[in-house]
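Support reply, case 0932

Customer input (verbatim):
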Amino acid sequence: MAVMKEIVLASASPRRSELLKRVGIAFSVMPSNIEEKIDVSWEPEVLAEELSYSKALYIAEQLKRDCLVIGADTIVVKDGVLGKPRDEAEAYEMLKRLQGSWHEVITGVTIINAGDKVSLKDHVKTRVKMRSMTDDVIYSYIRTKEPMDKAGAYGVQGMGALLVEAIEGCYFNVVGLPLMKLGTMLENFGVRLL
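Our regenerated output:
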């Protein structure tokens, strides 16, 4: 690693933390507890980027020192934007909509230097094909409780792996943090992971 700066992850997601650890990033966690407002008039890519920016900015404004804040937001798109299900009935509706077809997973990523507010935002899009499922399979998956805090009501890194037939693009994006994109973005702030 060339230069290392203090890095703060503006997310309570254990999946994002695990991915950062996987590539050797030392970081602290400060969850951004802003309300995620989905504006359906925005293009999904813009929405994902703006949500990630809002999260990062919320934490950067609290810190006001020379450190890098990483914000990320993942959305699922299939005939509209699918966020996290509010309840089991909505999880069922989402999985029913996704089953047997392709959808897109878009993660917006923002890095903000909290000291001078210089920021960079981008997104990654991955296509995912969900297998065909009976209602019994869908309800069995919902009973695991795994869908309840995941965009699109599934987690590819857990039991949801049994539902995913194919992935075109970045797997880590579907988990919630596109590592290659993040690495290249960090280089713009003088942080090299390799």
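We compared this against your earlier run and they match. Two observations from our side: The beta strands are 7-9, 28-29, 68-77, 81-82, 102-113, 119-130, 164-168. The radius of gyration is 17 Å. Please reopen the case if you see a mismatch on your end.
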